[in-house]
Amino acid sequence: MVSQFNSLENALKYFFGYDQFRSGQKQIINEALNNKDLLVIMPTGGGKSLCFQLPALLKSGVCIVVSPLIALMQDQVDTLLDNGIGATFLNSTLNREELQSRENAILKGKIKLLYVAPERLLNDNFLNFLDFLRQKVGLSGFAIDEAHCVSAWGHDFRPEYRQLKQLRFRYPQVPMFALTATATKRVRADIIEQLGLQNPTVHVASFDRPNLYYEVQEKSRRSYTQLLNYVRSQEGSGIIYCLSRKNVETIAFRLQQDGIEALPYHAGMYDDERAVNQTRFIRDDVRIIVATIAFGMGINKPDVRFVVHYDLPRNLESYYQESGRAGRDGEPANCALFFSFGDLKRLEYLIDQKIDEKEQRVGRQQVRQVVDYAEGTECRRSIILRYFGQQYKGKCDNCDNCNYPKPIEDWTIEAQKFLSCVARCQERFGMSHIIDVLRGSKKKKIEKYGHHLLSTYGIGKDKSVAEWKMLGRSLIHQGFVNETTDGFSVLKLNKYSWEIFRNERKVEIAITKSLKVKASNDYNPRKAESDLLLHQLRKLRKHLADQNKVAPYVVFADSSLRLMAQIKPQTIEAFKKISGVTAYKAEQYGDSFVSEIREFCQQQSLPTPLPTSSNMITLQLYQQGLTIREISERRNLKESTIYSHISELLAMNQPIDIDRFISEEKKAMIIKCIQTIGDSSLTPLKNHLGDDYSYDEIKLVRAWYRRENKQ
Ligand code: ADP
Ligand code: ZN
Question: HRDC domain location, by residue (predicted)?
Answer without folding.
Answer: 527-607
